[in-house]
């Protein structure tokens, strides 16, 4: 479903996803978008005139659809608290929500027109009042197996490897993940994955060491990158990545 989209001029197109319905109209040098998140299966999703977003561009563009991750960090709240004993290691898999990116393509280059969230997420604040940041809250399962993609068009699986390198038990109730640093990969079966993330916990009074791999999990033998990060990481960012990926919180 990802890639080039054929849009006929002056003809309404619709994308009927599980949690959101997207409407698209091409008029001369304008792209027009409207979308409605579903409150129920029977809810009326027809857009009103004020719902349309009008984007003036050029007449010689084609359109592409790609999956991207949310534009703010995600505070992931597991269904139940987790503990990892000292010197132990655990791998987790979590389903992150997709955003749908529509990109205009022409001989002059690529223009990102609009990002539409697959579902509505609640706002939350992570950190102390003066040094924290605005995030989205995500109630999600931290599963031990990777077979969690029921809706391949709405979720991206993130692999999180956590090693407790301290002498204390690691207890945590939430993880703040800056998903703007992650790419999206698609495997041969159409499932979506982020980069694999490795976290070394050194103690509640210390900053954790984080590594973002350049690939999806190692057991995914073939996967192609179909979306780059919103913010590309470099060595300087990785050295202070704990500003972007806060330490796992033991509360």
User: How many strands?
Assistant: 21
Structural class: mainly beta
Q: Report strand %.
A: over 45%
Largest sheet: 4 strands, antiparallel
**Rg, alpha carbons:** 20 Å
Topology as H/E string? EEEEEEEEEEEEEEEEEEEEEH
Number of domains: 2
> What is the 3D form?
elongated
How much helix is in the residues?
under 10%
**Helical element count?**
1
Q: Flag low-confidence runs.
A: 235-251
Write out the strand line-up for the largest beta sheet, numbering strands in chain order: 1-6-10-11
Task: State the end-to-end distance.
Answer: 42 Å
Average pLDDT works out at 81
Task: Write the SSE topology.
Layout: E1 3-5, E2 13-16, E3 20-27, E4 30-37, E5 53-56, E6 62-68, E7 74-78, E8 82-84, E9 89-97, E10 99-106, E11 109-117, E12 122-126, E13 133-140, E14 155-164, E15 170-172, E16 175-177, E17 184-187, E18 192-193, E19 197-201, E20 209-212, E21 223-227, H1 235-239
Parallel strand pairs: 7-13, 14-19
Antiparallel strand pairs: 1-6, 2-3, 3-4, 4-5, 6-10, 7-16, 8-15, 9-14, 10-11, 12-13, 17-18, 17-21, 19-20
Commentary on this structure:
It is a single chain. The chain is an all-beta fold. It has two domains: 3-66, no CATH class; 68-97 and 119-243, no CATH class. Helix content is 2%, strand content 47%. It contains one helix and 21 strands. The protein has one helix at 235-239, and strands spanning 3-5, 13-16, 20-27, 30-37, 53-56, 62-68, 74-78, 82-84, 89-97, 99-106, 109-117, 122-126, 133-140, 155-164, 170-172, 175-177, 184-187, 192-193, 197-201, 209-212, 223-227. The strands form six sheets. The chain has a four-stranded antiparallel β-sheet, with no helix packed on it.
């Amino acid at each position: 479903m990802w890639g080039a989209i054929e849009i006929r001029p002056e003809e309404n197109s619709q994308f009927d996803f599980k949690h959101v319905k997207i409407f698209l109209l091409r008029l001369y040098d304008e792209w027009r978008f409207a979308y409605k998140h579903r409150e129920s299966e029977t809810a009326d999703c027809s857009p009103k005139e004020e719902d349309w977003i009008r984007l003036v561009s050029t007449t010689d563009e084609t359109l592409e659809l790609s999956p991207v991750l949310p534009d703010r960090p995600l505070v992931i709240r597991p269904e139940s608290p987790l503990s990892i004993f000292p010197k132990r290691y655990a791998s987790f898999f979590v389903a992150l929500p997709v955003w749908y990116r529509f990109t205009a393509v022409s001989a002059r280059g690529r223009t990102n027109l609009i990002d539409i969230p697959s579902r509505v997420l609640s706002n939350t604040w992570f950190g102390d009042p003066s040094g924290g940041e605005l995030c989205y809250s995500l109630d999600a399962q931290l599963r031990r197996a990777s077979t969690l993609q029921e809706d391949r068009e709405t979720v991206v699986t993130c692999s999180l490897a956590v090693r407790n390198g301290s002498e204390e038990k690691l207890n945590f109730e939430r993880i703040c993940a800056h998903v703007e640093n992650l790419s999206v990969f698609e495997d041969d079966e159409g499932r979506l994955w982020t980069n694999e993330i490795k976290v070394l916990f050194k103690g509640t009074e210390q900053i954790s060491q984080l590594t973002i791999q350049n690939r999806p999990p190692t057991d995914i033998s073939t996967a192609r990158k179909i979306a780059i990060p919103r913010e590309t990481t470099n060595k300087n960012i990785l050295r202070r990545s704990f500003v972007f990926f806060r330490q796992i919180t033991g509360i």
